[in-house]
Amino acid sequence: MKALAKERLIFALDVDSFAEAEKWVRQLHRQVGLFKVGKQLFTRCGPQVVEMVRREGGSVFLDLKYHDIPNTVAMATVEACRLGVRMVNVHALGGREMMTRTVAEVDRVAPRGHAERPLLLAVTILTSSTEATLQEIGIDRSVREMVPRLAKMAQEAGMDGVVASPQEVDLIRAACGPDFAIVTPGVRPGFASLDDQKRVTTPGEAITAGADYLVIGRPISAAADPVAAAELILDEMSAALQAR
Ligand code: C5P
Prior knowledge:
By secondary structure, the protein is of the alpha/beta class. It is 48% helix and 16% strand.
């Protein structure tokens, strides 16, 4: 079960240099299956950071949240496939055609079942957005209405899953069923501080609620012993996976 938990634990590489990223991957690759490379690190270091993670034995979640015209997003996602990432994401707000086109282009270079086929994920509504944020841009619907609606649209477009708050897992499961991947940040084990996260769940609660992958950063990176913190998280995830 612990090996299974490792494949579901994603460490957020929220650092600004190649050397720092490499230090974390070397330290954690026995506990952590995937490393999330976001806009800051990728803008700074580029594809070589993806190559480094893979060389060190990890897999990559390329968290660049593409949102553009369908052709541009589809072609950028194809390039992510060529880098050999395991997960890549787009904004569902980019629309159905953008996602459908992306899935079609990825199907061409890495069909389903192909070893290099990444999980194609959609972001529904950013958890930093509130009802007021949505109203301001002309969306008169609640976050809890928009999240399952966009998740369902992503699924219909052929996407493999979504990134979502642990609080939204039940809504998404109800809309999309059991075979749609849910990746959740905002996870805090009992031993860690909340940092700037407000609505959090523990790793065990998130898995029990139906999350498939957990993104965890500071509870590991800010721990006195990061490897021990990751081990504790794996234990908690394993226990919840076993009970599921
Ligand atoms: O350090 P922490 O565990 O809070 O890191 C969580 C990671 O997940 C960060 O990279 C953060 O940007 C990302 N994230 C998040 N909440 C979201 C979406 C992404 O915390 N709703």
